[in-house]
Amino acid sequence: SRLCVEPDRLYLKWSDAKKIFKHKKLLTVKQLSVSKGFLYNGQPSRAFNFIVKDNMDIILELRRHREKALFSPLANWINDQKQSGCATLLVCKTRAQADRLKSLLAPYGIHLRFIDGFPDVKPGENQVYVCAGEVSSGFVWPAESLAIITDYEIFGSKHRRRIKQMQKVRTELLAFEDLKKGDLVVHVEHGIGQYNGLVKLRLNGSSNDFLLIVYKDDDKLYLPVDRMSMVQKYLGVDGIEPVLDKMGGKSWDRIKTRVKKSAEKIAGELLKLYAERKVKHGHAFREVDTDFFDFEAGFPYEETSDQLDAIQDVLNDMKASVPMDRLVCGDVGYGKTEVALRASLMTVSDGKQVAVLVPTTVLAEQHFATFSDRFERYPVNVACLNRFRSMREQRKIIGDLKAGKIDIV
C-alpha cells in the first residue's frame, strides 16, 4: 500500500498558479489533450495524460560508445526522432557548449538551428533545435511530437568549480576608511608624507574637511577631500621604512624624473622587441577540427567566461603566423591547465611536439596524470621526464622524443 494525499494538497488552483507565474521570466502555456470518461470519487472529471519516455536508452548507448565514435549513436537517435515526426531540442548549459555540439554533429549531416528558448520549437516539423538553458532531464513526448535531450546526458555531468573570489588590490584611496592615522601616502606633486587624520577648517566663511599630511621637518599639507584623488596609499617593500619627502624640495622631482627616464627606456626596449617579433615568421597552426570539439566537450567542469576568453586568445595566437607572446595568469584551481591541454591538442594535431615545464617533480607527476587521462581516447603519446624515472627510462624517453614517438612530455 502507498500513502495517498488529497489532490488539493498536491496541486495548485489555477488562481494561485497565475500569481506564481507573474514572477517568472518565461511562461509557455499550451492546450493539452484531455481524456474523457475519467472518474474521480465517482464523479466525471478531466485527466491530462503525460505519456513520455526517458532518454536512458540513448544515454547508455552513448556511454558504450565513449571510447569510439561518440556522436554516431546520437546522430542515429536524432534521425530516428525526425523519422517519427518529432521536433528535437538539444539543451546546453552554455552557448559555448551549444556551438561545440553544432560543430560536432555537422559531419553527420545534422544541422542544428539555434533558438532563444522553448517557445520557438515547432513540434511536428522534423526540425533539430539547440538552445542554451537548463532542463533537469530530457524526454520523448510522442503525443506532442517532441524530443528533448540535454548536454549532460550526451557528455556526462559537469562539475562547477568553487573558486574563491580574490580581492583586487586597490591603490587609490576610494574612501576615508582606507586610511588611518600614521599611514604613509604619496602625493603626486609633493611625494611621500604621513597621513595625520581628517581636520575641519573654516576658510572664507565656509567650513570644509581636509586631509592633514605631514612631511619632513614637520611641514603640513591640508588637502581638500574633493582633491583626494591626488593621493595614493604608499605600497612599499616590507621591512624598508621610506624617508618622508620635504615639501618644495628637489628629491621628489629627481625621483619622478629618474622613474620617467627608466620607463621611457623600458618602453623603447619593448617597442624594439615587439617590432622584431612582428617581422619574424612563426608556425601558423591549422584550424581546429571535430576531434578538438570532442576533446573540449570532455572537460569535466563548466568553463568560466574568463577561461573561455583565455583559451580563444591562445588559439588565435597559435593560428597567427607570428611568434606567440602571451602569459596566462590565474590562481590555483582557475583552469590554467585546461588552457594548456587544448593548446597541446592543437599542437599535436598539426604534427608538432609539446613540452610542458613545471617547477616541481610532484607537479610534473600531477600534470602527467591529468594529460594521460584527458588524452586517453586519442592517439597521443604522453610521457613524463623527472627524477622519479630511472636513468634508463630517462634515456629512453629522450630517445623517443628525438625520434618523434612522444607527442607530449
UniProtKB/TrEMBL annotation:
Query: Which Pfam families does the UniProt entry name for this protein?
Result: CarD_TRCF_RID, DEAD, MFD_D3
Molecular function (GO) terms for this protein are: ATP binding; DNA binding; DNA helicase activity; hydrolase activity
> Which InterPro entries does the UniProt entry name for this protein?
CarD-like/TRCF_RID, CarD-like/TRCF_RID_sf, DEAD/DEAH_box_helicase_dom, Helicase_ATP-bd, MFD_D3, P-loop_NTPase, RecG/Mfd
Which residue intervals define the domain Helicase ATP-binding in the entry?
A: 317-409
Q: What are the alphabetically sorted keywords of the record?
A: ATP-binding, DNA damage, DNA repair, DNA-binding, Helicase, Hydrolase, Nucleotide-binding
> Which GO terms of type biological process are on file?
DNA repair
Q: Which PANTHER family match?
A: ATP-DEPENDENT DNA HELICASE HOMOLOG RECG, CHLOROPLASTIC (PTHR47964)
Query: In its UniProt entry, what is this protein called?
Result: Helicase ATP-binding domain-containing protein
Organismal lineage: unclassified sequences, metagenomes, ecological metagenomes
